[in-house]
Fold this protein.
Amino acid sequence: MLKLDNIKTYYGNIQALKGISLEVKKGEIICLIGANGAGKSTTLMSISGIEPPRSGSIFLEGIDITGMPAHQIVTMGLSQVPEGRRIFPQLSVLENLDMGAYLRRDKEEQKRDLEYVFDLFPILSQRRNQSGGTLSGGEQQMLAISRALMAKPRILLMDEPSLGLAPIIVQQIFGIITRINKEQGTTIFLVEQNANQALKIADRGYVLQNGMIVKSDTSSALMADEEVKNAYLGV
Amino acid sequence: MNKIIQEIKKSVLSALWLMILTFPIMVIKVNSYEGVVLWRWKNLMWIGIGTFFLSWLWRFLLDRKENGPGESKPDADRDGKFSLRKALGERKVKIPTLAVLAILVLAFPFMVKFYQVGIMTSALMFVILGLGLNIVIGYGGLLHLGYAAFYAMGAYTYGLMYLYWGLPFWAALPLGAVSGAVFGIVIGVPVLRLRGDYLAIVTLAFGEISRLLLENMSGFTKGPEGIAQIPRPGFFVKLSLQGATTYLFYICIVLVLFAIFVIRRLEDSRIGRALEAMKEDDIAAQSMGIDLAKTKLITFALGAVWAGMVGVVLAAKTTYINPGSFTLMESVMILVAVVLGGTGSIPGVILGAFLVTLIPEYFRALADYRMLMFGVALVVMSIFRPQGIIPRVRKRYLVGEDKS
Ligand SMILES: Nc1ncnc2c1ncn2[C@@H]1O[C@H](COP(=O)(O)OP(=O)(O)OP(=O)(O)O)[C@@H](O)[C@H]1O
Ligand SMILES: [Mg+2]
């Protein structure tokens, strides 16, 4: 589905990614874990075309999307929930969701998808006419996920969906991520600090350190790994 | 009691501060002919007294803004405004109001003295400029400080094409629009990656560069000397000065209506939505599949079209253009009209443009102080009413729901 081959991304002279290679197969939930500043967000931004890599190549369903502009990558069925949610603050919840479906023209289907996200997050339905900026942090996160879903992606990139949320909401969000994956067949590439929870729902995981992948394995193997346990699981 | 003493103390301090600050310019006057220095102590006294009371009033207003207007005045004020808006939205009120307005506008040139028509035409031109800049700033959220360059582009399109090819007004008007748009895109491409303050500075520089180019390419543009004797538009036959001025007035009215129509269509369009998203968060907008580069260029082009057309009208109205008419000051005045009136709000921008042009015109005494006046107005507005005089009411669009 998605394949990165030796991706190197720079911010000016600073090299943030030092040759990342990874693969996400269709229907999988893949988790990328790593410390602050490891380059997790940069990896997602490189995939989605917002911070294009300087070298290496990215394939989406076999098509080379390296250097393609971000808006075009969206048309190929890739959506992202960016770091920090990035809700449109002045727009209402409905308008935010509508923005998510910006590229779509199938009004009827959109209505059905709207029902679907309201079913996932009933609170959003209650807040539908409230401005995005006045939602609580958790509600904004739900909106960000829903907005990305409104594009009807085949693969969804999520940057720390659990950041700053209460444990009970975190549980709920992870539950919903699994649900999206099962019900819609959406492939999910998840970046998380909350490695414990993330690995529980993921099929496989990659560990990122200083812009390099240092480990990759199935979730259960990673959870059993001593180093990973010490560094990221806090047990 | 204690509070009053404190207030007095604050006011006295402000007064003293301003007295010291303005001492060199308001008190000392050097008469270099006679070699004497005049000490105008009276001025100092007035400044002291004035500041004392004004600073008191200022703090009172600030206090009221923060803590609300007190209990005696609930939301009556706000409700009143709301119902005016609502009333204007109702058909029964809207249609007669528009009809009366239309008759007044149509009859205007015959009701007032001739020179008033000229002034009003200038005001209308400013309205169109404001509406155009408002597309860039209000909808696109792109702070553009070189808008006068587009205006110059239109004016010189007519001026030069007349000079070299004898092109008439009506051919120049659409060409002015096109050259404005093209120039908008040309300026837009290099600034695609900039935003906020950086964009403002670079566009400001572009504005000045354009003007300097016009000034220095004297072989082609006639430089600072300008282009003279550009013809006014004729209406099948050549019109008298009076006739042509009236004619331009009506042309401007049509352009204003056209601009309003286009902008309202824009608000409801896909591009309007893209603009909204881009203004709010450009990274998220990209993730929604919005082509930022294209959207920005369209914004610049759509904004510049109006300046291009008004430029042609200006050349026809004054029959003479030179680079001096398109300084940074011009860009700033248009910006002031937009911000003062209400960024993003069509009625706001129209009101702003009228205020900015008509106040200095009708209060000649104030004309010299107009920059000072608008400066003060902007400061006061940004504290008490940052959304502008008539703030924007954003239309909410709904997805998959009944449009109720
Ligand atoms: N816009 C930028 N300009 C310069 N350097 C940047 C920029 N964004 C990120 N970096 C640097 O790139 C490196 C990777 O950042 P990135 O945001 O990808 O980390 P991360 O793994 O997502 O961290 P976190 O868990 O804190 O979100 C960091 O060293 C960071 O300082
Ligand atoms: Mg990050």
Notes: Chain A touches chain B at residues 48-50, 69-72, 74-75, 79-80, 82, 86-92, 94-95, 97-103, 107, 110-111, 114, 128-129, 147-148, 151 (CB under 8 Å). Residues 85 and 144 of chain A are 6 Å apart (CA to CA). The first strand of chain A starts at residue 2 and ends at 11.
